[in-house]
Amino acid sequence: LGVEGAKAFSAMLLENTTIVSLQLSGNEFDDHAAKYLADAITANSRVEVLDLSYNMFGDKAGEILGTAIAENTGLKELKISWNHFHSQGAAALAKGLGANIFLKVLDVSYNGFGNSGAAALGEALKANNVLEELHVSNNRISVEGARHIAAGLKENKTLKRLNMTRNPIQSEGCCGVLKALQANSGTGIKILDLPDIPVNKELADLCDAVKILFPNLLLRHGGNTKLQRKSQSKVELQTEPKVMGNSQSAV
C-alpha cells in the first residue's frame, strides 16, 4: 500500500467507529507513512488490535509512533515486529509505552533495539502498570541490555509474559533477569522465554531456585543435555520453535 495507502487508511480511521482489529503488515510503510498512521493512532480509540509488522519503519517512525502510542486511549495490542527500529527510534517507542495506560501486548521482535533500546524498555517497565506481554526477540540485546530490562522487572507487578529469545544476553544476562524476579515477590510473570544458550551450573541452580519460589512460572530456555536432565523435573527446558515461512504467530 505504501505512503498513499497509509494516508487513505489514516483518513478512514479518523472517522470509522466500528473497526476494532486492523492488520496492515507487509505494506512497505516507511517513515513518511508513519506520520499519517500516527494521526489515526492518536485520534482513534476504537481499534484495539493493530498489526504493523513486516514494514519499513525506521528511527524517525519510532519517534513519531512513540508519541502517538503515548496518547492513544484504545489500543490493547500492538505488533510492530520485523521493522528497522534501532537505538533512537526504539527508545522513543519505549518511552511511549511507559506513558500508555491501555496497551496490554507489545511485540517489537526482530528489530535492532540494542542495549540503549533495552534501557528505555527497562525504564518503561518501571512506570507502566498495565502491559501484560512484551516480546523483544532478536533485538541485539546483550548482557548490558538484559540488566536494564531486569531493573524494570524488579519493580514491575503486571507483566505476565516476557519473550527475550534470540538475543546474545549469555548466561550472565539470563541470571540477571532471574535474580530480578527473585527480588520481586509481587511479580506477575507467568511465562519467561530466555535465549537458547548453554546452561552452566549457576544458571541451572538459579532456574531451580526461581521455580521453587514461583511454582507456576513457565520458564523456557535451551541448554546442554546433561544439565537439562538434571533440572528437567523442576524447569521446562526447550528451544525456540523454528519459524516456518512468514508466520507471524511464531514471532
Automatic annotation (TrEMBL):
Residues 230-251 are annotated as: Disordered. It holds the Pfam family LRR_6. Gene3D superfamilies: Ribonuclease Inhibitor. SMART domains: LRR_RI. InterPro entries: Leu-rich_rpt (IPR001611), LRR-containing (IPR052394), LRR_dom_sf (IPR032675). This is Leucine-rich repeat-containing protein LOC400891.
